[in-house]
Give the backbone structure.
Amino acid sequence: MITQTLKEAFEVLNLPHMAAVYDHHAEEASRDSISYLEFLDKLLWAEIEAKKARATSTNLKLAKLPYVKTLDSFDFEFQPSANQRKVNELKTLAFVERSENVVFLGPPGVGKTHLAVGLAVEAIRNGHTAYFLSAHELISMIRENIESGRIHRKLKALNKPGILIIDEVGYAAMEDEVANYFFQIVSNRYEKGSIILTSNKSYGSWGDVFGNNVVATAILDRLLHHSTTINIKGDSYRIKEKKKAGFYDVSRYETDSNDLNG
Ligand code: ADP
Ligand code: MG
């Protein structure tokens, strides 16, 4: 039977979506007098779209993002120093194709992680891969892998994703050995893969972050050679939300002082 050999062919060629929808498309084609070529074209593109969707969903899982948020849900009006023009340029993903880096600097709550995740989601939806980890996780990972003797294998694995996102650099201190491996990660990816990094510390204090000015300078040198920095100065979005919810009810205090005056 033709359907049996067709099913076998779809399996051998790994075309599961075509296997699921070919009969529906065939019916439609004979009903609407669609040409053979058009039928074949529709079927093939349905498979391509399904494969893309599967890859996106796999790559989203592999990226280990802390949450899925998009650039579209970012309120640039609330945070004007988060330069929307620069973010839109990054959204074209030319930086990933050129293996360039992105750094988001700023105090807590201004949207650094949101923007980093948003860029990663955009990249993954367009066929790239990413891997997210906090600096804290990266430091623990480096320490554990030094101990177990697997550090070189681990460093290789960190070269693989198209974008490596290192979140919250600056909170956890690093001893020299860890800082050196951090440098190796940045150096290995230099001009080969993108890094998106977020930090609450301005570049001037990275000597303290890495416990060592020489290593910090070497890291900054590689990281910033081909890069975009977005320096966000503004209020925490978390506080805005709390204000809205009434946790910071300024009017109450105003009423109190009016009472005193009256
Ligand atoms: P940071 O990493 O700078 O500390 P986050 O990116 O974690 O800040 O932002 C804190 C929370 O506020 C997140 O839930 C984030 O989605 C939200 N947020 C921050 N800035 C904005 C913004 N301008 N528009 C919409 N949501 C925002
Ligand atoms: Mg953050």
The two ends are 94 Å apart (CA to CA). The chain has a mean pLDDT of 92.
